[in-house]
Fold each of these.
Amino acid sequence: MIEPPITEYGVLLESKSEKPPICTTLKDLVQELHAVFSEDNVNVEYIHELMSSYKSNPLEWRRFAKFDRYRYTRNLVDEGNGKFNLMILCWGEGHASAIHDHANAHCFMKMLHGQLEEIRFAWPDEDDKTELPENEKGLAELSRTNLKTNQVCYINDSMGLHRVENPSHSDTAVSLHVYCPPFDSCNVFNQRTGEKSKSKVTFWSKFGTRKNADDDSSRQPEDV
Ligand SMILES: [Fe+2]
């Protein structure tokens, strides 16, 4: 087995006992995220509750929500003083990510619009599988979760890998993501063989502005 990277998940839960404030606007949420991430410890439960307390208001986030007709997009909202990245991902009908890890970072995902399906997988077996029959080589599916507007989910590498997809063929989806610490590449996995490869992650827009409209490299976001 590939050992999942060690994270501080268990201890982090104990580092903050007070209830988080309720964020009534996106601006409040950004401000609170800056405050919590200015500390060295990351309290997963606290941030989960903080993000849950914000009720999606499209008027506040639509200037960041820039879609591509071919693939889902990653749109940077805030760089979090280098401690975290806040971004909005826009999913067209049927768009899906690759199966990926999270580069040893914490990942929080909140639905702002529509629905997403999160499919979680176990890390691949490191042993040589060339002798195994085809149907036993792939990644083992662990769970499927349907996320609806305003729900929040959390993952780190100790919990496995995942793929995220918009199962709807008639509605788009928009999600808000916090990554701590920020990262610019992760691993993507072949579901059938378990093979992994490094993938750079890019932004489709930054701070509400699409700068590289003609740059094809920004069409390759692989992570969420
Ligand atoms: Fe992800």
Amino acid sequence: MGTGVEQVPGLTTTKAPFIEGARSRGDLFITQPYEKYSEENHQSWRNLYARMLDRWERYANHRFLEGLDSLGLNGERVPRLEEVNGFLAPLTGFKAKPVSGYVPAYLFFDCLGRREFPTTITIRDVATPDYLPEPDIFHDIAGHVPMHTDPAFAETLVRFGQVAAGAVERLVDQDDTTELRERVASNMRAMARFFWFTIEFGLMRDGSDGGGDGLRVYGSGLLSSYGEIQHSVESEAVQRYPFQLEWIVNQGFRIDRYQPLLFVVDSFDHLFDEVNRLEDWMKEGRLDNVAPGEPTISEEEIDISLAAAREEG
Ligand SMILES: [Fe+2]
């Protein structure tokens, strides 16, 4: 964005000068400059929210539906994070924390462990409601945050954050050798896969009268996708299996398509137990050599994680 280029107003994903400025200064944690949202941004929220309502009613976990109510979310305007947090904090202590972009894995996990949820404040372009080059405020606030109102889910997420950050902290005192870096990358891959197949794309058995064979969605990647929420429950192209930890930590995934493979938990208590098992495995070194593949953990990501974990320690 050189000088003389017409300024694009608003807080549109990949087109927000405010965000570019924050990134160029290296500011990861920022504020939500609410007055910068354009009418088009609010229209984008309105469109996204309105078309999800029926789908949420039909496919979402009922704790999610209750969460929408208790947060006072509505389909009219992009939400103010301060207002959302005013409702959320008394329920579970969680807080949405505005960020300028990608949060390195260790820092992200560490935030979860402290009941802070890194939250994107930009919103996708009104013209492309389905195309999502990166997370936006609709995914983060409408997809994730309603789940954070549920105490059992919130405890599971906190626990996961502590375990995932702990996986790096367990290794920081060792000499920085190639072997160590491979172990760190392996643990981070395992944690990212666990997060992906649960918090982002998890399905839950529903004892009651739910649609689609008694399955309900609790994963936020599904809860914020008009097309995939239905596909995840209804499509015969999706393979759905009972949650299986040894499979999940070794299973790669692609972020650029509907998920062909999903895992089903019985309840949030069940998921909490699995996080405890994940911790046991991590401490026993069973995550030090998980299958290679997606997601790729860059050398830079390993450097940032090791440095941050050393600081923490
Ligand atoms: Fe997400």
